[in-house]
Fold each of these.
Amino acid sequence: MSENKFVRKQIFVDPKVQGSLIFRVIAYWTVCVLTISIMLLCWRMLTGPARPPLTHLDDMWFKFGPALIASFILLPLVIYDIVKISNRFTGPLLRLRRCMRALAAGEEVKPIRFREGDFWQDLAKDFNAVAARVQNGEVQRTEDGGQGTEGRGQEAEEEQAASV
């Protein structure tokens, strides 16, 4: 089968997490631009000839405006990259959450496997081990007549404690 089967088609999968990352990128960009602008204005006013602040701002716009515009043009690319890279951890966590809810509801959960390049590959292995153990425990309880360790006395409780 083709490898394209496992490629995510949607990159914005968790609005809460990815939205806050986008907000932070924009906030950091804004703070950075403002800090640099204020620093440059102060530097020009301290080291340059005595002129009104608006004159300094006009000169700064002439000299540094293209850099500001270039950074503004690059901002959407940075945001896209942040969303795309965050998909590598939000996607697996959403999948893990879905499987955990199914497992908690008593549904059968097949082993999960994250896509190549996703973060937290070991988390999938750990979850699969826990899911197998939980599902095997449910099978064991069903075979015991739905009693689990209850109704089988002290021996069953000691067996279960020893197996942990």
Note: DSSP finds four helices and no strands in the chain.
Amino acid sequence: MNELMTISNVILIVVIVGIGFFIKNYFPSYFNEKGKNLATKEDIAEITNRIESVKSSYEKSLVKFGTYHKNQANVIGQLYKHLVASLDDLFLLSVPNEEKLKQANKSSSEFLKYYKLHRIYIEPHLKEQIESIIAIMRESYIDFEISKVEGVDRKEKSKYLKSAYNKIDKLAIPILEELENRFRELLSV
């Protein structure tokens, strides 16, 4: 019986040592691998969240830019239409009459009002050119008005009419042509 007890103790010790050896060698590598997998899953989740965040931010920016660009294109089209109508009406004042003057006033007022309400969509360098045209239009309009004043002799009236016409033709039209090119560049982006 003593021998049986000794054998069973030896077997128990061998089993315990075997289990200990098994636990010592297998479980650490098992838990290391599980830890690596968990860390990898967490890393992948974090990277995926970051990618989705950047993607969402980019899509929002793209929509905002698209909306802004679309509005800007509409504003440029309408502004150009008003500007050309206003310059055309001022040209017609070279042979002044009251109806043409009213039309020139109306189209110039519409252009100025539209520009003031929508200039937020206009690039700064284009604003400078548009404002140069506005100044030329005002000077031309003043020249047309002076040419109508009673008591101004025919030669003086002719001088003011010619000055008004030349300001539009020689100063405003080249700026308008440059604006057309810049508008085309801007809208083709």
Note: The two ends are 98 Å apart (CA to CA).
